[in-house]
Amino acid sequence: MSIIDSIARASDIGSPVPARHEAFAELVYRFQDMAFACAYSVLGDAYLAEDVAQEAFVTAWQKLDQLRDPHAFPGWFKRIVLSQCNRLTRGKRLQVVPLTAEADRATNDTGPDVVAEKQQLLNRVLVAIKALPENQRLVTTLFYVNGYTQADISDFLEVPVSTVNKRLYVARNKLKESVQVFKQTLQHQRPSRNRDFMERVSASLRPPVEEDWLAINRIVHERAESDALTNELWTDRRLRFDEQRYRRRQYVAEDAHSRQILGYGSIEQTIYLPRYRLFIVANPQYVANGVAGLLLDRLMTDLLEVKAVTVSCREHASQTQLFLFLKDRGFTEVETVLDLRLDVTGFDVSCFKSINESVEVQGFSISTLAEERVRDPNCVEKLYALSAALHEDDPARSPLAPPSYNAREARLWLDMPYVLPEAYFIARQGNQYVGVSGVSLFEALPGGLTQSFTGVRREQRRKGIATALMLRAIAYAALHNYQVIQSSIRPIQSAMLLLNKKLGFGELSGSVTLEKCLRETVPVASKIYDEYAGHYRDDERAPDLEMIVRNEGGRLTGECHGQKVELFPTSETEFFVKPFYGQATFIRDAAGGVSGLDFTMLEYNTRKQRVQHATRISALL
């Protein structure tokens, strides 16, 4: 099929869609390196050039019916490529890397002298290419990327062949010995070296419809080693996502020819509004060939549009290829969790009768949250104090110390609908709380419960208290006809892991969470954080609220009304927070001293901005 025939068939909206796609695939195959070379000559970065070329083909497909003369396709397509380049160079969304940055690419040579010599040579070549006038640089790049003829380049640039020859001749004389190195570098980076580029262009994105979920669910079951129940729950949560309260963008990637669903991707807003969850579901072969990249590129654009602050992806530990892909895109591993399960229906509590008796003999009793809230008016405060003490000994604890007790904030968790007051167990010695454990409905499997945090005060350990608490929770589950208890434990929590396995929990699988912050931070000296540390209050608008700013081991934190957040710097004076839309700006007086703090946040209920102009009351001693 000739190029003209391909263009004519691809642009004929009366033809069957598969035939149009097949014809357009011929155009992608023919012009992929040319589009890449054109973008590379402008941007000087291989990754950006490849992205631009892909976007240009998508735009060309969408507008192909507007092309009146198939013979004009090369020049028409060139203008689309340059338009995409101009969009990048004019905007601030992406940083354009200069040509000389390509000298930092890794080499397969092992000797340091060879590496240094090769990088110096490549650096000189790229500097020489960059120094060429734009028209000569473009002709040279097009000529050496894949052996395009002068006639091909003439059609693409819409200039006579003689002009192409003249520009190429002048450029060759200027480059001289650099030509061969540039040719090898460019051909190593061209899209046609593998199938990734073709796969990404031939796949298209669209929002999923109801009929797609059967195929999506099949991919979920095929790609991971998770059990069927977990996979079904994953699909059920996607289908029941509350789009009335929270934002979501979701897409399926489908093959342009067969209409086969190749992958699914979505971002879902959490209760922490600027924090989003990322889901990318694709078979490993499609992660490798670019479908995952196609989904992620679109979703990252959406994240910028909705002003997300962070995005995280939690996936089965077997998804190593997906993790490598995300890490290559700037995601960082933040957590590994083991998934343990206990079959309650087959559990015999009587085998542990002696442990319960031993705990009672030592003077400890076990009651429930429901009982304690009736019995002890200080129940919530005492539980908070116990949690703070247990935090110190938890190897998986946050680097930040817990905030000071606030009755309203402390009750928020206890009053959540997934908390089961009758299944939250508290160990007491007299009136002192010494340990806690329990089960809840938080993200529970169908017909199951989720194990809550289990902990015992340091001085009361090795007395069987933690075991007795967990036995009570298991007995509750059995009594109320729950079939399974799920427990998520970090590998570093070795003592808790051993206790769970002692009670019969089986290690089913593990999950890994990767996160990416979408706002750029800058390093700030710890001594500046010391200057900001202090008490701040807005006497005019909120005289009863006081914010305490601390330097906690090189992390700047703000605490107010029982909540504590880390402040992340975008400059020496401006900071943002991750759990909600909040912005803090520190103010200095004429003498350079810290005099106040402006704090702006988006209210959860009204979604309106609230601004506090807080004056610094005192430094933090």
Explained architecture:
With 621 residues, the chain is an alpha+beta fold. The chain has 4 domains: 3-193, no CATH class; 200-330, Aminopeptidase (3-Layer(aba) Sandwich), CATH 3.40.630; 340-509, Gcn5-related N-acetyltransferase (GNAT) (Aminopeptidase), CATH 3.40.630; 526-619, Lipocalin, CATH 2.40.128. It has 22 helices and 21 strands. Strands 1, 2, 3, 4, 5, 6, 7, 8, 9, 10, 11, 12 and 13 form a 13-stranded mixed sheet that branches. Strands 14-15-16-17-18-19-20-21 form an 8-stranded antiparallel β-barrel. A hairpin with a 7-residue loop joins strand 9 and strand 10 (448-451). The radius of gyration is 31 Å and the shape is globular.
Report the strand count: 21
- How many structural domains? 4
Helical stretch tally: 22
- Proportion of β residues? 15-25%
Inertia-based shape: globular
Q: Span between N and C termini?
A: 80 Å
Poorly predicted runs = 92-111, 114-122
Overall SS class? alpha+beta
Q: Mean pLDDT, nearest integer?
A: 84
Question: How would a textbook summarize the main sheet?
Answer: 13 strands, mixed
**What is the C-alpha radius of gyration, as a whole number of Å?**
31 Å
Helix content: 40-55%
